[in-house]
Amino acid sequence: MSERLNFAAAAPEAYKAMFGVSQYVAQSSIEHSLAELVKIRASQINGCANCLHMHTADARKAGESEERIYLLSAWRESMLYTPREKAALAWTEALTLLPQSGASDADYALLAEHFSPREQVDLTLAISAINSWNRLAVGFRTVHPNEKKAARAAA
């Protein structure tokens, strides 16, 4: 795979705006560990290798266990995630797969049970941001660091 376009270089103002949203999310009411799980799960659904590389590394640095990272795609069948995390992951899937889910009342009720109104907005913005980053990275074929190293080694 080769990169189609370096979107940060092509539109630095757009990149700066996206980065600003990400900075808000990082300082928001959503705990860092949960934000990383959300970023990983959305990136799994969207098939974003670059974001998966980044956010699994970030989650590990923040103390997330390998086991919870490995089982994230099967979170519904695992007892390793708290009810709050499961509510956030359900909302992540609902918004990431919006055409299929319609952001159902059941998913929202679960969200509202575990998150304050402010947290609901902050979580929804976090989900929106990672989905936007995924679309930029997948659409422009951003190459993740391990692929760049492999390409240099093969050259």
From TrEMBL:
Domain of life: Bacteria
Pfam families: CMD
Classification via SUPFAM superfamilies: AhpD-like (SSF69118)
Residue span(s) of domain Carboxymuconolactone decarboxylase-like: 12-94
Keyword Membrane set for record: no
Molecular function (Gene Ontology), one example: peroxiredoxin activity
UniProt entry tagged with the keyword Oxidoreductase: yes
Signal peptide as annotated in the record: none
Keywords: Oxidoreductase, Peroxidase
Record NCBIfam families: ahpD_dom (TIGR00778)
Protein name: AhpD family alkylhydroperoxidase
Record lineage: Bacteria, Pseudomonadati, Pseudomonadota, Alphaproteobacteria, Hyphomicrobiales
